[in-house]
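[Discussion] Sanity-checking designs against the backbone

I'm trying to build intuition for which residues belong where. Below is a structure token string of 108 positions. I'd appreciate it if someone posts a full sequence so I can compare it with mine line by line.
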């Protein structure tokens, strides 16, 4: 078994195994995932899913984009508003900041 390139697709592959996605023709590489993440961070709130894919700086297959999109959505890095526009919501530094404040309580 050859493991060349395993580190680039391992996270997405494990995500798809967890959610039992089938019929994936092409698993995205890390640079493609990062490109989509950076694009959403920069242009968050401007595009819906299809137009976001059309405006990416590097062309990708739509099915590959959908795998990345589903991964980002399920990992709570992006959100979709009422109008269907995509926004980046992942902020680990902001979460650490609020969790360190003792006067704030966490409710379930």
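Best answer:
Here's mine. Compare freely.
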């Amino acid at each position: 078994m050859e493991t060349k390139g395993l580190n680039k697709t391992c996270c997405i592959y494990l995500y798809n195994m967890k959610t039992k996605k089938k019929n994936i023709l092409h698993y995205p590489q890390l640079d493609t995932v990062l490109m989509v993440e950076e694009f959403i961070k920069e242009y968050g709130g401007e595009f819906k899913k299809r137009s976001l894919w059309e405006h990416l700086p590097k062309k990708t297959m739509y099915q590959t984009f959908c795998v990345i999109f589903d991964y980002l959505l399920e990992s709570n890095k992006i959100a979709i508003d009422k109008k269907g526009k995509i926004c980046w919501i992942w902020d680990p530094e902001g979460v650490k900041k609020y969790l360190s404040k003792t006067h704030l309580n966490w409710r379930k």
